[in-house]
Amino acid sequence: MLRNTTNIGDPVVIDMKNVGIRYDLGPEVLSDINLSLRRASFHFLTGKSGAGKTSLLSMMYLAQKPSRGVLNVFGKNVNFTNRDALALLRRRIGVVFQDFRLIDHLSAFDNVALPLRVCGMGEREVKKRVKELLQWVELDKHMFDRASTLSGGEKQRIAIARAVINRPDILLADEPTGNVDSDIARKLMKLFIELNKLGTTVVIATHSEKLITDFAYPRLHLSDGNLRIYQPNEGLRGGMRII
């Protein structure tokens, strides 16, 4: 279903050095973030509501730049990268937003097909890939339904399918299993794991301790504006920072 199209290059796809971010004149939401994510790594992102998870993800998918420090994505310093170059970098990043951000007047099929059409893929191949992925997420029966008519869980699966359809180099997902039942959640995790095995770097923000326990991946944990990294199954109190 997913094809191996990994770009060969620097093994570090996201690199943050002493990064901080604030909004307007307020205090820093995140401070002195030092983080390197290698190609084909898989991490959970955790922290209480308001801890800065969304801010960290938004820098990773290039929606905003850090207030200070250095952020390199695919080896490019985003503070010195122009708008057109940033747009090309974003095409290599799949994002699952917590509020879905589907185009309501388009069908489920057309929402998922959008990244492939933007890249100029032929319509025959687009139809093949989209139908295959919609079957995987069990939404092929709703293929031609408008996004506005779908339930929350169905919208979530469409958003995930759209994010992974082009086999991105980086996948960032904000609570991707929050609106689906446990069986669908495990199936979606299987999809993320398959993508990761093909070389995609995966970061999943979640509040689900069950998800973190069931799938043993390192955890990026935000607290009081700071980031710590924990090995799988390691308690947050005894965590040790990985350099």
Explain how this protein is built.
The chain has 243 residues and is an alpha/beta fold. It has two domains: 8-92 and 168-243, Rossmann fold, CATH 3.40.50; 101-167, no CATH class. It is built from seven helices and ten strands. The protein has helices at 53-60, 83-90, 108-118, 123-136, 152-164, 182-197, 209-214; strands spanning 12-22, 28-38, 42-46, 68-73, 76-77, 93-96, 170-174, 201-205, 219-223, 226-230. Strand 1 and strand 2 (28-38) form a beta hairpin.
Q: Summarize this, please?
A:
By secondary structure, this protein is an alpha/beta fold. It has helices at 53-60, 83-90, 108-118, 123-136, 152-164, 182-197, 209-214, and strands at 12-22, 28-38, 42-46, 68-73, 76-77, 93-96, 170-174, 201-205, 219-223, 226-230.
